């Protein structure tokens, strides 16, 4: 599965897969690499594919191999849940610090 993702999404993928490879150009080579590794692989993109696909500067590409996709999604959901919990805590903490300074 080839996905365009944001920097925030890349953070979640990297949290779920600490050994995530992040490749450069050519971007298209991450497809066979992910299939061979059986694990997600991301790319910062390349000028050619960005021009051909109108990919925005803030987008990256990630490949999730179909084999084992259920397990991959499970890890991504767990990482996203943890990230949301930490962000919620950090937001509450920021409010406490803001109130303490007032």
Explain this structure to me?
There is one protein chain. The protein has one domain (2-101). The protein is flat. The chain has helices spanning 7-16, 30-37, 47-53, 69-101; strands at 2-5, 21-23, 41-43, 60-63. The chain is an alpha+beta fold and 102 residues long. It is 57% helix and 14% strand. The chain starts with a strand and ends with a helix. It has a 4-stranded mixed beta sheet with strand order 1-4-3-2. It has 4 helices and 4 strands, in the order βαβαβαβα. Strand 2, helix 2 and strand 3 form a beta-alpha-beta unit.
Which properties best describe this structure?
four-stranded mixed β-sheet; flat; alpha+beta; 4 strands; 102 residues
Q: Topology, please?
A:
Blueprint: E1 2-5, H1 7-16, E2 21-23, H2 30-37, E3 41-43, H3 47-53, E4 60-63, H4 69-101
Parallel strand pairs: 2-3
Antiparallel strand pairs: 1-4, 3-4
Helix pairs in contact: 1-4
In short:
By secondary structure, this protein is an alpha+beta fold. Helices cover 57% and strands 14% of the residues. The protein has helices at 7-16, 30-37, 47-53, 69-101; strands at residues 2-5, 21-23, 41-43, 60-63.
Query: Which H/E pattern describes the elements?
Result: EHEHEHEH
Task: Name the overall outline.
Answer: flat
* Largest sheet geometry: 4 strands, mixed
Helix count from the secondary structure assignment: 4
Q: What portion of residues is helical?
A: 55-70%
Distance between the termini: 49 Å
Number of strands: 4
Uncertain segments: none
Gyration radius, rounded: 17 Å
Structural class: alpha+beta
Q: What's the number of structural domains?
A: 1
Widest sheet: strand ordering? 1-4-3-2
